[in-house]
Write a structure and sequence with these properties.
The protein is globular. Helix 2 packs parallel to helix 11, helix 3 packs across helix 11 and helix 5 crosses helix 13. The protein is built from 13 helices and ten strands. By secondary structure, the chain is of the alpha/beta class. It has two domains: about 200 residues, D-Maltodextrin-Binding Protein, domain 2 (3-Layer(aba) Sandwich); about 100 residues, D-Maltodextrin-Binding Protein, domain 2, CATH 3.40.190.10. Strand 5, helix 8 and strand 6 form a beta-alpha-beta unit.
């Protein structure tokens, strides 16, 4: 099967692998070698498709400082938030593929590809993956006084009284919204979604006993859990988190099917020479081991990591398929 013969229903998911091989291999070998030998010769722009303050922004700036030292030229982070991360992503998709514009984004890249019927760019064809930068587990938290204290108790309560329990999120189609919807579908239960303007606002209302539960990252929940403002019920991943030693994994709580991780990674415009992408990936591999990166990331409950472009692309492929299915089955629409 070629990229041209993929059906429309597979455009987003199936062509990611084609895009990876074709876009990165589109520059002649001699030109790639020449570009790699001289690159970089000036500052590198990294676009973050969110406002300042998110961990995606923190990751870009922390690793960007190390990359600047590694590559010998400044890495300048530019926040271009808006339209659910698609505005900044579109800027990178349309940028010159010369190795001087990159994107640092998160799960929203795959979620947007699944959520929006029309985007100003083609996720599978206009953007290529470079490397993961970090990943983090998801934590299910409840209000302090919720009678259901364990994950099994919560599921049983939702089965007994469909649509009565409420869950908060950072907005319709946000990662926190889709994560809970995935859990509900896996367990054939219903809850009422309460969208907020950001996950921080949702956590405030859960901690105030106005909303029953939510899913967030370790970084956004651990302080609340430690001081008793939230009750930690389950954490994704294979092992318990050092910051939350009393919170079992979803598998330990009896729900191994749910294992969502938040991820953060670097991408580039399709057509960027493979030799440049390889050099950037190698620089990232060194940067994530820097003491400052390790300190900042671990303090936020995040694990600094690195991957090959192919491994990162597979994550995007798999997640796009997952969220496409969740959005279809849960009938989620963006107004």
């Amino acid at each position: 099967m070629t990229c041209r013969t993929l059906g429309s229903t597979l455009l987003v998911i199936g062509t990611l692998w084609c895009a990876l091989t074709q876009a990165q291999g589109s520059t002649p070998a001699a030109a790639q070698q020449s570009a790699s030998a001289s690159w970089p010769t000036k500052a590198i722009r990294v676009v973050v498709p969110f406002a300042p303050g998110s961990f995606t922004d923190t990751a870009a700036r922390t690793i960007g400082a190390e990359l600047g030292a590694e590559l010998g030229h400044p890495v300048v982070v530019e926040n271009r938030g808006g339209a659910g991360s698609t505005l900044g992503t579109d800027i990178v998709a349309k940028a010159a593929p010369d190795g001087y514009t990159f994107l640092v984004t998160d799960n929203s890249f795959a979620m947007s590809a699944a959520l929006y019927e029309k985007l100003p760019y083609q996720p599978a064809l206009d953007i290529v993956q470079v490397s993961l930068l970090a990943d983090a587990p998801a934590v299910l938290v409840t209000r302090p006084n919720l009678p259901a204290k364990t994950l099994k108790d919560i599921v049983d309560a939702a089965r007994s009284h469909p649509g009565t329990l409420t869950f908060g999120s950072g907005g319709q189609g946000s990662s926190a919204h889709l994560a809970v919807e995935a859990f509900l579908l896996q367990n054939k239960i219903e809850m009422l979604h309460i969208p907020f303007k950001g996950i921080a606002a949702a956590m405030v209302d859960v901690s105030a006993d106005r909303v029953d539960l939510a899913i967030g990252s370790v970084g956004s929940t651990s302080a609340y859990i430690r001081d008793g403002r939230l009750r930690g019920v389950a954490v994704s991943g294979d092992t318990r988190q050092a910051a939350l030693p009393d919170v079992p994994t979803f598998a330990q709580a009896g729900f191994a099917e749910f294992n969502m991780l938040y991820w953060f990674g670097m991408m580039a415009p399709a057509g960027t020479p493979r030799a440049i992408l390889d050099r950037m990936q190698q620089a990232i591999a060194r940067a994530v081991n820097a003491e400052k990166v390790q300190t900042v990331f671990s303090g936020a409950g995040v694990r600094a990591t690195v991957s090959t472009p192919a491994a990162f692309t597979k994550i995007v492929v798999d997640e796009t398929a997952l969220w496409t299915d969740v959005i279809r089955r849960a009938r989620i629409k963006i107004e």
